[in-house]
């Protein structure tokens, strides 16, 4: 069967090449789209993955079987829909939840104890290491009382402003 004089096998192949290439580019440059607050149904990765699977299965069914074109389109649609739904439910959603569970907010750091890595000078900035169950982070630090705090001193985080932790020595 032909579509506007072009064999369906060729249409499926061109669609597969284009959608597969775009899917690969979207996966590489996904951070560009991460700032957009799109519903999951408009996720570019899911849409292009659907099209890639649809065209790939259509091409295979058209090349290998003698099924009617309408049956091939229906089977390809169902296969792509099922595969993308499973991909979203079992891969993309759990991965996005895992990423967000490892993040922290600056206000969560107040009251935590850290270790000075780089001496905090009077009216200057140093560096503090804060350890937790999920790993360690280092933050720029300033003295809460404008006093010098030597390296290797345990400090208590009093407040956080603009990504800088304000600390004072912590005595057990």
Structure description:
The structure is a single chain. With 172 residues, the protein is α+β, with helices and mostly antiparallel strands. It has two domains: 2-101, no CATH class; 106-169, OB fold (Dihydrolipoamide Acetyltransferase, E2P) (Beta Barrel). Helices cover 46% and strands 23% of the residues. The protein has four helices and seven strands; from the N terminus they run ββααααβββββ. It has helices spanning 8-28, 31-34, 44-64, 69-101; strands at 2-3, 6-7, 113-118, 126-132, 135-143, 154-161, 164-169. The strands form two sheets. Strands 3-4-5-7-6 form a five-stranded mixed beta barrel. It has a two-stranded antiparallel ribbon with strand order 1-2. Helix 1 packs antiparallel against helix 3 (44-64) and helix 3 (44-64) packs antiparallel against helix 4. It is rod-shaped, with a radius of gyration of 27 Å.
């Amino acid at each position: 069967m032909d579509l506007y004089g072009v064999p369906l096998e060729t249409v499926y192949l061109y669609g597969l090449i284009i959608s597969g290439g775009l899917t690969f580019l979207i996966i590489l440059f996904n951070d560009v789209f991460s700032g957009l607050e799109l519903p999951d149904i408009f996720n570019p990765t899911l849409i292009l993955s659907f099209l890639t699977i649809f065209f790939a299965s259509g091409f295979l069914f058209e090349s290998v079987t003698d099924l009617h074109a309408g049956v091939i389109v229906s089977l390809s649609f169902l296969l792509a829909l099922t595969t993308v739904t499973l991909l979203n439910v079992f891969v993309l959603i759990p991965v996005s939840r895992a990423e967000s569970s490892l993040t922290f907010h600056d206000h969560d750091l107040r009251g935590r104890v850290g270790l000075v890595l780089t001496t905090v000078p009077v009216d200057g900035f140093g560096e503090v290491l804060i350890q937790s169950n999920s790993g360690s982070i280092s933050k720029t630090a300033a003295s809460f009382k404008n006093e010098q705090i030597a390296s290797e001193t345990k400090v208590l985080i009093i407040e956080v402003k603009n990504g800088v932790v304000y600390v004072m020595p912590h005595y057990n």
